[in-house]
Amino acid sequence: MADAITASVPTTPFTTILNFRDVGQTVNQLSGSPILQEGRLYRSARPDKASPKDQVTLTATYGIRTIVDLRSKSEHLAQAQSPTPDPSYLSIPGINYELISLNGSAFERALIRKLPWSGIARLLYHASTFNRPAAIRTLTTTVMAPEGLTALGITTLSSSHSEILAVFILLSLPTSYPILIHCTQGKDRTGLVILLVLLLCSVPVGAIDKDYRASERELVPELEARLEELRAIGLGDDFAACPSGFVEAVLQWLANRWGGVDGYLEGVGVGREMRAMVRANLLVGDKE
Q1: pTM of the entire predicted model
Q2: Cα–Cα distance, 190 to 99 (Å, whole number)
Q3: 135-144: long-range pairs with CB below 8 Å, 24+
Q4: In Å, how far are 48, 66, 130, 134 from 127, measured between CA atoms?
Q5: pLDDT tens per residue, range 148-189
Q6: pLDDT by residue (tens digit) across 67-99?
Q7: Nearest 5°: CA angle at 195, between 247 and 141?
Q8: What's the CA gap between 192 and 156, in Å, rounded?
């Protein structure tokens, strides 16, 4: 069923960068009309192990000027300690790198507030012994796994206001483009940011949903490795999927809590002028 739903979504042109696609091209194909400029906004999974050829393609073919990395400090530490660390993608000439941990300290505090007293005690113990992996596992097993991806996505939106603002500041600057946004898989945190952008640009919800769900297909080549990573931190296999109701649930939350995406973005500091600049950077023609 997922394959049928996302069959019209372009597949990655790279051999070593998964889940890469031109958001404008994808949306235009899915909606059947030219809504977004193509060659401006891209999304992908982590490009940590991009081959030299793919690194060159990012700049020579796609002209990527800015890469926004939404991963956390612990994810960067894990990558640096992996058997085959490759930080070379962080030094591709001509690219500006912006590290914005979308699930940063505010998100972590939101999770901690949901812990029972026994979980808080374990967390404090691990923190006092500087055992960050064990502290993270306390949060994943006690809060994140029971809540699931959709509820955690809403927790991200409700807590990570300064991080969302930082991303939209970049999206408002013409000098940021072409821009690539990624996290680890390029589906959840990246998916939330892209969802907000597409709602802001009045993209049909059906196209937004298909773009989000296409990530599950695109990540099949590293599925087994990803499942091992998730299990190691106490998360279930469902965290590797793209829940079918994710987009609709986030849309409903935005409507109920903020009156829609404009109200939400205004609330986190993305004012009317900045929102207009983002639209102008991405929309085809005069869509205001």
Answers
A1: 0.91
A2: 13
A3: 136/74, 136/233, 137/233, 137/234, 139/108, 139/111, 139/112, 139/115, 140/233, 140/234, 140/235, 141/234, 142/115, 142/116, 143/111, 143/114, 143/115, 143/119, 144/111, 144/234, 144/235
A4: 28, 35, 5, 9
A5: 999 999 999 999 999 999 999 999 999 999 999 999 899 999
A6: 999 998 766 666 655 555 455 455 677 889 999
A7: 60
A8: 9
